[in-house]
């Protein structure tokens, strides 16, 4: 009967909830030990200059090498780390590891363009009273010039959050750049761009996806560039997967982009090779020239 099948569904649902809770509890316990056991590592995704394909930066993205599960992506543990507060020590580790790596690249690479390394920071970290000091200490500790670092935060992390905005002002005063990540998907508010010291808008992949077809348009992608240009900010298009998207972005006037079309997140050594100019990324960009008649 409908009633008993409803009951059955509730039982299945509760079993699923239990399974998920156990899974999360286990993962949470593993997560707490993971820092001590040195199980996290960073990969780096290039940010590419569309006109010439040169890397303009590298976004540090955290990975977890779990002893049984293998490499776990951040979607599976960052939310958990945020809930449990572990994001604070984990985020501090990410910040220091990215600064250490950037400083090493600066020392080791013979030619260095004006690239930056960017680090994702959660709302929870920005609300920690000492966060700006920790950024200053990471830069000083690894001897990394402030203009080599960028901090990425989401609109939601700073929306209506005076503490977070004040922290960002202190970080900005150090000379560190600030990017608004996943732009257009959070509490988009243009007044945010006046109160927070934003340098870069990263338009979210979901809007870049709209540029799929040859003549496809994306109002948000276009509007973001318009806002960025008007406020003298940079704009980066995220999640570029196809040559068509890359070409459309270039035609619209985008200078910077990131995505699997150019490169997936890479091990540090491969990122270093790109920064050294050893391996060019796929070109942007223009429509192929017409063949000679
Ligand atoms: P995000 O900061 O927006 O980073 C971009 C994500 O999109 C990365 O996923 C990247 O691998 C992926 N991506 C880049 N290009 C493409 C593409 O062309 N196609 C597709 N399908 N995906 C693409 P990832 O590394 O799994 O990170 C996911 C999110 O986890 C990040 O989104 C960021 O919000 C968060 N995250 C990663 N590392 C950290 C960290 O160290 N701290 C904090 N707080 N969050 C982090
Ligand atoms: Mg990011
Ligand atoms: Mg993003
Ligand atoms: Mg995104």
UniProtKB/TrEMBL annotation:
Biased composition (Pro residues): 280-292
Domain EAL: 24-279
Domain of life: Bacteria
Record keywords: Membrane, Transmembrane, Transmembrane helix
Protein name: Bifunctional diguanylate cyclase/phosphodiesterase
Organism of origin: Pilimelia columellifera subsp. columellifera
Biological classification of the source: Bacteria, Bacillati, Actinomycetota, Actinomycetes, Micromonosporales
Range within the parent protein: 476 to 768 of 779
């Amino acid at each position: 009967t409908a009633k008993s099948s409803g009951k059955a569904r509730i039982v299945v649902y509760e079993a699923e909830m239990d399974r998920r809770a156990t899974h999360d509890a286990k993962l949470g316990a593993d997560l707490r030990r993971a820092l001590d056991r040195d199980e996290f590592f960073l990969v780096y995704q290039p940010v590419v200059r569309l006109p010439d394909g040169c890397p303009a930066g590298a976004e540090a993205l955290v990975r977890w090498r779990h002893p049984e599960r293998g490499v776990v992506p951040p979607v599976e543990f960052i939310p958990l780390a945020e809930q449990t507060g572990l994001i604070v020590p984990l985020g501090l580790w990410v910040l220091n590891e990215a600064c250490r790596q950037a400083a090493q690249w600066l020392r080791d690479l013979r030619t260095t363009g004006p690239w930056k390394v960017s680090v994702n920071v959660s709302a929870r970290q920005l609300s920690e009273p000492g966060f700006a000091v920790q950024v200053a200490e990471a830069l000083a500790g690894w001897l990394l010039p402030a203009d080599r670092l960028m901090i990425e935060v989401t609109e939601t992390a700073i929306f209506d959050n005076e503490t977070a905005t004040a922290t960002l002002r202190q970080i900005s005063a150090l000379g560190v750049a600030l990017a608004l990540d996943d732009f257009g998907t959070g509490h988009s508010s243009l007044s945010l761009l006046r109160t927070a010291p934003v340098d870069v808008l990263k338009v979210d992949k979901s809007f870049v996806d709209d540029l799929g077809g040859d003549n496809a348009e994306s109002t948000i992608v276009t509007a973001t560039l318009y806002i960025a240009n008007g406020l003298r900010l940079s704009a980066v298009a995220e999640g570029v997967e196809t040559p068509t998207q890359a070409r459309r972005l270039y035609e619209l006037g985008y200078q910077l982009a990131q995505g699997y079309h150019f490169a997936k997140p890479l091990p540090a050594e491969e990122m270093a090779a790109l920064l050294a100019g050893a391996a060019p990324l796929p070109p942007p960009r223009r429509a192929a020239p017409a063949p000679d008649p």
